[in-house]
Amino acid sequence: MTTADAAHPRFAEALRTLGLDELNGRIRRFPDATRTAAEAAAAVGCELGQICKSLIFAADGVPVLVLMDGASRVDVELVRRELGAEKVTRAKAEVVRETTGYAIGGVPPFGHRTRTRVLADRALLDHDIVWAAAGDPHTVFPLAPKDLVAHAGATLVDVRERTA
Fold first, then answer.
1. What is the pTM for the complete model shown?
2. Alpha carbon of 121 to those of 5, 19, 23, 128: distances in Å?
3. How wide is the angle at C-alpha 17 spanned by C-alphas 15 and 21, nearest 5°?
4. Which of 42, 51, 54, 112 sits between 20 and 30 A of 148, alpha carbons compared?
């Protein structure tokens, strides 16, 4: 694991723009991919719920970012209702890259190519620190959830699947 020059260049620039340069020194790069929440949690050595997944959905064809803890799944019906959309589906890989500038598995919670609406599931706030992708499938960074939500410009919502 290394930290030097760990951030994706676009994400490093986003951190500078947001005045978060100090986060560059906290980014961790791993030799093996941390593409899934389980891989990221194992690499970091944290609970699955402390991973922040950045997931792109299409709401009536318009991309929307949903930030979700790694132990939960997004309930697309709740997202649909929250947005007042007719139909919500997972975005295709090319839409994710076109919208964010990053590949699936490395999408950070902010610093995207285009401005999208952002929803953050309230369960993220259950943790002191969460880890999110830093622009590629090998990098993650830690941040307090309330700060992550603020920098992402997210609206706090309850959109996780309820388990019976």
1. 0.92
2. 30, 25, 23, 15
3. 40
4. 42
